[in-house]
Amino acid sequence: MKKQRILFIGAGRMAEAVAAGLVTSSADSIEAVVMSNNGDIERLQRVETTYGVQTTQNWRQEVDNSDVIILAMPPEAHPSVLKELSTHLNQQFVVTLAAGIGPSYLESHLPQDTPVAWIMPNTAAMIGQSMSLYTLGTSATKEHKEVLQMILKGIGEAHECSEKEVHELTAVTGSAPAFLYYFAESLIDATTAYGVDEKTAKDLVIQMMYGSVQMLHETKDPASLREQVTTPGGATAEGLKVMKEQDFSLIIKQAIEATNRKAMGGS
Predict the structure, then answer these.
(1) CATH topology classification for 169-263
(2) Where is the Pyrroline-5-carboxylate reductase catalytic N-terminal domain (predicted)?
């Protein structure tokens, strides 16, 4: 694989995370990383200083010299950018990080046979621990997949899916961290209700969750870990009984379904 010149259209938090991963894990495979942002000069200066990337306020001038173009902007910004980008493309590999913008959408808005891909990371990309989903378009080759895997390597683990699966599973890998954080908030609130100060409550809950996730990562068996903590007829069992009576599992499923409906344009 030849060294890649990678252009980011957008320089927000996710773009920054992906760029940081690239310059850290794949420097030998990169000719240059160029980042652009719509008018936020201060942010561009910061990412340039922090990561040693190049920056520009006019991405259009960089397209011809780029091998990969990463669209790191909100879904609603894609139609206008894709329309303009189409007039500059010459078989560059176009990758989007936006929710709901799959390869079929990109292919329908770009010149015929443009190689495209869709990456759905989550916010843990910022610490190199994302569980990303990805899928490639019909014109992407083995070499394009290698480039994509190089990009993904810097932000954590990744799983290849069909476009349909990315749409369906983004709620689990992308949105569910918010559900986990809400669970943490609820535990902290329950702790402070016993008169514990908020800082102590946060320390207790966050370390408990961190240790539990570490064990889960090692064993890959949540049911077994739950059973280890739960003595039949004991206090933990009584708490789980309440969760089962309130159908906690159903609530999670409904939250996932609602997230997917919204992501696919529903209400």
Answers:
(1) ProC C-terminal domain-like fold (1.10.3730)
(2) 5-100
